[in-house]
Amino acid sequence: MGSTPHLIYAALCPNKAIPAARKIAVRTLYSPSDPTIILDSDAVVLRLIAPRSSTGEDMLELHVHGGPATVRAVMSAIADVHPRSIRAAGPGEFTRRAFANEKLDLAQIESLGDTLSAHTEQQRRAALRGRSGELSRAYHGLQKDLQIQRQEVKLIQSRITKHQVAARYGELIRKGIQISLIGHPNAGKSSLFNQILGTQTSIVNQQAGTTRDIIEATVDVQGYLCTIADTAGVRTRGSKSHSEIGEIEEEGIRRAIAKARSSDMIVLVVSPERDNTGCIKLWVDPSSGSVDQGPQSDSALWSIIQGEDGVQKPAIVVLNKVETLSKEETSQYLSSLQRNARAFLSNPDIVPILPISVALAENLMQTGTPSPDAGNMGTFITVLVNTLTSLTSVPVEMADLIGATERQRQLLEQCNEYLKMFVHYAEQKTPPPDAAIAIHHLDNAANCLVQITGRDTTGVVGDVEEILGVIFEKYDFSLR
């Protein structure tokens, strides 16, 4: 055992033999200044010898009982053993030492931070993939390929692109999936929002336009961290409504559309309406005779799902308030929604459309007779989880890459850009300076990969002080 751990053990456990390495022992800890004072009568002591420790150094672990007072007393006693050479570790100092002694690289350190901050099962799994070392080995493999396979840069670019894709999936799991509930006023978005959360978080009543601002809540949906946004009802000045759109509501609509467009997933909530005769409205368009005009065919709502860039967003369409419809009417509405999906979406087959009754689910909950699928809400949650799974799933061969962090993804993007520049200049087949510029871009690409792990392919530490500062500023933790 090193001198400092030896001094600490001898001072806290006088006249007791040092336990064998990697063997747990129970000891009574005494105050170094007064051996009659017991700090902890049943502390667990573990001795670790370099390099077989988390930091690669000799270590002495003390697992003490009691609350903060016991911990403070033991920490104070340790400091008194040798004040000049013993001090409390700074934030992240154990991890810095682990990096310096090649027990961890930067990618594994970031994954450790994600493990400590994981709130959901999917976040925990993604973080563990990064800690396994498989991700780091993949990055080192890319570094080696840049050194010995410069003629195959395009193949390497393809592999880096896979890393980037997996990193985006990982960010969804790590930061949470943004889900927006959108629809016309009084469609039941806030009620559905409350059902998902299980709390009365949002104000709900029968006045159209109640939700004027965006209300958000973060919830664990069977292992997936989701931030769900209840947005203002979307309607236009030309729509048939009992009231005009005021400035406040108009601003709420603008924010709702902007929020939905920036979300990862959409839940479009549609509800039926009836005319003065009691018949359901199929919103006949006088100009075309179409029966698919109205709230369920509002192009503004469907265009949000389709996406401004033409990339269709993951989405679920729900027909709410089906308790007010007959089976035949429900069937007509669902058929109408399916026709509109085919009309407005590039890939309508991947958008589930299902009927629900939030009111029925609420009533059964209030009467104390809840059902697992009351109002078809159980089916909705199943469809929601399936959509989340699809949104975050990667091919089996990319599973170990999902632990990549946002910093790593940005470096991969930079690396890919440098490789594109290398290919651009290299394929011109001209003499210097173009050839020199091409090699310069290749070196920059390799340096991006060094910044991910903190080491080159020989294990030599790169210029990582600035990188360490960024990482430890984000992950204020110590590795035990």
TrEMBL record:
Where do the GTP-binding protein TrmE N-terminal domain residues begin and end? Answer: 10-103
- Return the GO cellular component terms, semicolon-separated: mitochondrion
Top-level taxon: Eukaryota
Q: Which Pfam families match?
A: MMR_HSR1 (PF01926), TrmE_N (PF10396)
Which ranges carry the G domain?
179-321
Name the Gene Ontology molecular function terms of this record: GTP binding
* A GO biological-process term: tRNA methylation
Can you name this protein? Uncharacterized protein
Q: Which organism is it from?
A: Diplocarpon rosae
